[in-house]
Amino acid sequence: MTRTSASHTLRDSRLLAAVLSLLLAACGGTPQDEVGEDIQGTQEAGLNVRLRLVAANTSSGNYQSYDPGHGIRIFQGLEPDVVMIQEFNYGDNSASAIRGFVDTAFGTSFSYYREAGAQIPNGIISRYPIIAAGEWDDTQVSNRDFAWARIDVPGPKDLWVISVHLLTTSSTVRNTEATNLVNFIKANVPAGDYLAIGGDFNTSSRSESCFTTFSQVVSTASPYPADRNGNTNTNAGRSSPYDHVLVDSDLRAYQTAVVIGASSFSAGLVADTRVYSPISELSPALSTDSGATNMQHMAIVKDFLIPSDTTTTGITVTSPNGGESWAGGSTHAITWTASGVTNVKVEYTLNGSTWTTLTSSTSASTGSYTWTVPSSATTTARVRVSDASNSATTDTSNAAFTITTSGGGGTAAQVFINEVLANEAGSDVNGEFIELVNSGGTTADLSGWTVSDSTGVRHTFASGTTLGAGAAIVVFGASSGIPSGVSNAVACSTGTLALGNSGDTVTLKNSAGTTVDTTTYTSSLAGTDGVSMNRSPDATSGGTFVLHTTLSSLSSSPGKRVSGSAF
Description:
The protein starts with a strand and ends in a 20-residue tail after the last strand. It has six helices and 37 strands. It is mainly beta. Residues 1-46 have low confidence and may be disordered. Strand 13 and strand 14 form a beta hairpin. The longest helix is centred in the first third of the chain and has 18 residues, at 171-188.
């Protein structure tokens, strides 16, 4: 049984354009002529384009869904071009919910295909236009099939990708699935196009017979992607090679190292945030994301430099792009995307007019420059990345970002999470609270800022809310939970914080939606009734969270210093 959403035999360019428009509309994607990019010009040249393929069964939580957000952050940190995704569930799985997931995890210009009528569907998500897509029947399983898509990647060839989720039953069953899939590929995929098979194979070893079967159409040879420590296994316990990105010989010839920030992985990457260092290179992913409750497997990343007959020349700054707050003296990655550019010049400004050069020429393909932020407080910082040989091709941060310094005295506001009580005294959840502190030297306008847990936004600060220099403000579950004498406190705007006693993530974002601070805690910091977790040292943004009782005789100190004295 074969079900398709568009015929793969269309050749007439006008018909192809019509099919593309209809398909993208159905999937909620953006037609090619509406995609917004920082493009400065077009050159006819045989330049290479970096193509990042990712296989990802990274759903987490209890419902084989991406709702908890751990997988979303991993996607955002990896910045893939094409993803072969498994367990493609989110929210109520409506078209608007799936579109929202794609927009958040990848971008509004990405299109997608998701197989219908499956409990844990496979799918494909792509930066490049999906020409055709559909599903081929997996006779060995009832709750998903093989999802495929034909993608118009740069250059003269199309890319065919198949997202698979083979059964755990036995290696014999997996080989039957592989045999059926290879037959579908031979019957439908043109030999001259690129081919990639990716996803969760559930294979206990690389010697299983299914790899011999797959080798008829793709390369299964080493070297294999590995994590920061050289481990090539991909299941949650990191003991078996469950997940793979396998490509045909045409595409394998263009494989190149995966470069993220200042790091390079010659054979590809097994993305385990628990061992990735520095984790800032995968921002906003957290080091705990790959170990989240019921996290399925590790994402697999492979990069390719494919030839392009026509390339667009352009640069887009991706970070810092406005709204960030970076501490002076800290190390961050300036990141960008570039096409048709060999080397770039990287600069920054503290006042919006005077520019300082960080490097006059560095490889554009790395997409990253590691920067030690200057210890000069400002709210008007921006970065600029330009073609080193043509300054007309350039992009600047879309908005200003903040650099903070310690010590006050007129320095910029620096707001962070200082104390959290997730396990309220007794059973009155209204007593849960989150304390914010401003260690900077100027008042912070909190209008429209939000406080979230791993489920969603719990509180939005009302317009006009401010937090003075050196002061604290506390968000309680409800007004009835605010203790007598605590004046610098507000009630949660949604009526509850609902913080998890077994672990949770608390995130503070500004009115632009940029993460200002976030922390993930475990049950060890939330397992005792009435005892909060507090920064150590108290009121320092870089302090680690410890039990409040290790810092003073008090079990908590909402709105006050850890000793109970006023801020």
